[in-house]
Design goal:
It is built from five helices and 19 strands. The strands form five sheets. Strands 1, 2, 3, 4, 13, 14 and 19 form a seven-stranded mixed beta sheet that branches. A six-stranded mixed beta sheet has the order 5-6-7-8-12-9. A two-stranded antiparallel ribbon has the order 10-11. α2 packs across α3 and α4 packs parallel to α5. It is globular.
């Protein structure tokens, strides 16, 4: 869905349209009194076809990863079963996603599997990533009404040729007319070294914080914001702690690892780390009415089927699709995360 052109029509007309949208949406049948918002990095969910517009085509049948149709369908089926487990067989309100190639793979996942009964809709823009992987979002139309969406570009003023993944922004009404602002992120990786790439994640953090501040600056605005993603940094790293969450207006719900149900969202040798996080504005916590964060619901989903034995470093490790060029047929190199929202 492309951004609605609110600036091209009279303000009064826009207001009437918004009121009509909310009124018709609130009139929907009663749903349960909470809803789940999740994020998951799918780990290289490519289609198996050659994309003539891209240089990178390793995930194709004749490419270096030998990404066949049967492997694609196995991955798709793994993902839909995991999503049903995350959602407890109920529709998620929102699922933020990282590392998908295009809208085709999303349609195959959400329209051609049992997930199709959950009335999901897709939000996706083709981004600038050199490998062609994007962020995306799906939402349930029985729970939320999409009002506006846009990709937020991360630009480097010192290097006009710099390109990375977009930050995806969307504005929703819930079924009672409350407004929810959502950002999905996949910040630059640590490939090439953590210290060597720290400035790139700081750039993404500053870009996102500028957009968030613009929402706080709107007249009479106390926005309810959800920021989710694979940040390639932990809650204690400068990009998160000192830039994005520099004041008390945003709360990182994944900063206290002991309350999340598992040690981390990905594993490097012996160590689990929390790169996948959900951050919310204070209005989703300190409020008496409307849509609110359900206390202590922040969770790292860790179903047993997502793991395998770690013979090198002990314990378990993630059951991945690939490790380098070697195919394993698993799920992802990241664990999903979620929070629950309640109506008050």
């Amino acid at each position: 869905m492309r951004p609605l052109s609110f600036l091209k029509v009279p303000l009064l007309f826009c207001l009437i349209i918004e009121i009509q949208v909310v009124s018709s949406f609130v009139a929907l049948g009663q749903e349960r009194e909470w809803m789940r918002v999740a994020f998951w990095n799918f780990e290289n969910f490519f289609d198996p076809f050659v994309d003539s517009t891209r240089v990178y085509n390793e995930f194709t049948e004749n490419g270096g990863q030998h990404w066949t149709k049967s492997r694609f369908y196995k991955k798709r089926n793994n993902l839909y079963k995991a999503i049903l487990a995350i959602s407890e067989n109920e529709p998620l309100a929102i699922l933020g996603i990282a590392e998908i190639e295009n809208e085709y793979v999303l349609k195959m996942l959400f329209n051609q599997t049992p997930l199709k009964t959950h009335n999901y809709r897709i939000v996706h823009y083709e981004g600038d990533d050199k490998r062609g992987i994007d962020v995306a979002m799906v939402y349930c139309i029985d729970k939320l009404q999409l009002v506006y969406t846009e990709p937020v570009k991360v630009r480097n003023p010192k290097n006009p040729n710099y390109k990375t993944r977009d930050i995806l922004y969307a504005k929703f009404f819930d079924r009672r007319g409350d407004t929810l602002q959502v950002f999905v992120n996949h910040w630059p990786s640590r490939y090439g070294g953590e210290k060597e790439t720290i400035k790139l994640r700081a750039l993404a953090a500053n870009t996102l914080r500028h957009k968030v501040d613009s929402l706080f600056a709107l007249p009479q605005s106390i926005p309810k914001i959800i920021i989710m993603g694979d940040f390639n940094d932990t809650p204690e790293d400068p990009s998160i702690k000192d830039i994005l969450c520099k004041d008390k207006s945003l709360v990182n719900l994944f900063a206290e690892s002991k309350k999340l149900g598992f040690d981390g969202t990905l594993k490097h040798q012996y160590n689990w780390q929390i790169f996948d996080q959900i951050i919310v504005s204070k209005a989703l916590i300190d409020n008496d009415i409307g849509l609110l964060y359900k206390t202590n619901s922040a969770t790292i989903f860790h179903g047993d089927f997502l793991f395998e034995e770690d013979k090198s470093y002990g314990g378990v490790k993630l059951f991945r699709t690939y490790v380098g060029p070697k195919y394993f047929g698993g799920y992802s190199d990241h664990l999903p995360v979620y929070i629950d929202l309640i109506f008050k």
